[in-house]
Write a sequence for this structure.
């Protein structure tokens, strides 16, 4: 494990939810496992007034409530936290931030002024902050690196994503920009690459000659919770599909990178995303299903409909479900459907990829011989399941489906970093391999833009009851092709208990 160079970590949006729930816990765990720099300062920045001490108290309390902590490590970690209130919309006010960074640099005796800026703010500040940092020379790398982590959503549509990119590039160079997609930080998503390219028994089959179709599911049981205000302006296409699910699709579909480094990896990711078959009018009407959840009793509890959620408009037409049949127009994948779905208030939380292989050309052991299937479970119960046919014991030669499973939990060495731990650590080390590059982000927006335009169509939205697997139209998407979605449980292997 490479220990990052001494540095300051500046978190904009320091009093926000992401900072409390993800960033500070990730930094604490990195600290407790000796993976942060020898000397480092964390500076929280936002408009709210806190002293260093009151900010420390607040974060300590939330760490104690949310995480398993070790008292000594927690106390010494907390001492690295500092706070600076500024008006983040006012360029002039960043002078106070510059001064504070000078002071911290003296206090911690940094030899160079390495600084990681994390933008955990509302997107409206994504261009303002880089511009204001630059106005005070805080983008200047002559005495230490300056890096910028930008949270999603990176843009609102193709046009605004391009504008944002241009605006950030005016002040920061591409090598300084880290667009975070936390799905790329997940161990099991990275494993897609290792699994594919380190096993001679799978890679030769990984193409249109042997694969019939692929399912990618990103299901959530939770609704929009407290985030109705944000979500209503976003929807499932922007919130999950444009970024997380297309990144997973890229990992499943990409060619092997020449090397494992940021350039080679991201060249291949961008290439495969650029090969997505553009969605035309026919696709939008026939191969896309948008849905919105409606109130229903689920396992004895009434769950309210999306329109009743706080912060959501009463007549909202925002989609909380998207199902799509996508194609990748390249040599490897031409003609293989990728059925991709994501939604809130589905029966359970599960993200997985299912590879369905073609049946054998000579069905000598029965026409209904089991299909060969590989389930790559991204979360929860992370693991892999392979299904294949075996002779049913007894008379005759009938094939029967059997399964082989691997569960990450069974590894002795299971100290997996969470997505934010991995990505923060990589950014501190200057490794952008798992961050989205500008061309990939643009390719994703390019692909979803027709969906965003189509969303306006009044016929584009179907209802589904909370706790079901989305609108029935989504089932028809596969039924028309003589197929069906897999209905996964929270456990990878089938068990008696299933959420449905
Ligand atoms: C976030 C979305 O990016 O990802 C949320 O904004 C969603 O709406 C979350 O719930 C899902 O992430 P995970 O890691 O829980 O699958």
């Amino acid at each position: 494990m490479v220990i990052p160079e001494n540095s300051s970590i500046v978190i904009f949006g320091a009093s926000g939810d992401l900072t409390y729930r993800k960033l500070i816990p990730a930094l604490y765990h990195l600290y407790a496992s000796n993976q942060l720099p020898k000397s480092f300062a964390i500076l929280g920045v936002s408009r709210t007034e806190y002293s260093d001490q009151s900010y420390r108290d607040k974060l300590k309390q939330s760490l104690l409530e949310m995480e398993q902590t070790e008292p000594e490590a927690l106390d010494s970690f907390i001492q690295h936290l500092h706070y600076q209130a500024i008006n983040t919309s006012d360029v002039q006010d960043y002078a106070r931030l510059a001064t504070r960074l000078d002071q911290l640099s003296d206090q911690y005796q940094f030899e160079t002024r390495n600084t990681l800026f994390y933008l955990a703010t509302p997107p409206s500040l994504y261009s303002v902050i880089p511009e204001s940092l630059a106005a005070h020379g805080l983008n200047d790398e002559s005495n230490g690196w300056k890096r910028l982590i930008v949270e999603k959503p990176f843009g609102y549509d193709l046009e605004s994503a391009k504008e944002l990119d241009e605006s950030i590039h005016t002040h920061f160079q591409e090598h300084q920009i880290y667009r975070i997609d936390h799905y790329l930080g997940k161990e099991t998503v990275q494993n897609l690459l290792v699994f594919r390219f380190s096993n001679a028994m799978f890679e030769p089959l990984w193409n249109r000659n042997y694969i019939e179709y692929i399912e990618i599911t990103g299901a959530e049981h939770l609704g929009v919770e407290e985030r109705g205000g944000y979500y209503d302006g976003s929807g499932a296409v922007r919130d999950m599909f444009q970024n997380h699910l297309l990144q997973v699709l890229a990992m499943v579909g990409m060619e092997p990178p020449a090397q494992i480094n940021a350039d080679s990896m991201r060249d291949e990711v961008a290439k495969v995303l650029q090969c997505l078959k553009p969605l035309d009018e026919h696709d939008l009407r026939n191969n896309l299903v948008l849905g919105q959840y409606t109130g229903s009793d689920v396992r004895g509890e009434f769950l309210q409909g999306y329109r009743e959620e706080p912060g959501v408009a009463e007549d909202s037409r925002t989609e909380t479900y998207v199902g799509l049949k996508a194609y990748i127009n390249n040599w490897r994948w031409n003609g293989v459907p990728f059925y991709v779905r994501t939604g809130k208030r589905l029966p359970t939380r599960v993200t997985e990829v299912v590879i369905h292989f073609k049946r054998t050309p000579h069905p000598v052991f029965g026409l209904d011989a089991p299909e060969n299937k590989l389930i790559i479970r991204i979360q929860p119960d992370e693991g892999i399941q392979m299904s294949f046919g075996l002779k049913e014991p007894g008379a005759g030669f009938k094939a029967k489906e059997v399964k082989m499973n691997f569960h990450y939990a069974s590894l002795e060495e299971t100290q997996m970093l969470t997505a934010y731990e991995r990505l923060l650590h990589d950014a501190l080390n200057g490794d952008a391999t798992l961050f989205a590059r500008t061309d990939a982000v643009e390719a994703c927006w390019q692909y979803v833009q027709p969906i965003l335009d189509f969303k306006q169509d009044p016929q584009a939205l179907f209802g589904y009851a909370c706790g079901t697997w989305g609108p029935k139209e989504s089932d028809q998407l596969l039924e028309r092709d003589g197929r069906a979605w897999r209905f996964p449980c929270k456990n990878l292997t089938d068990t008696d208990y299933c959420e449905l």
Summary: The first helix runs from residue 17 to 32. The first strand starts at residue 7 and ends at 12. The chain has a mean pLDDT of 94.
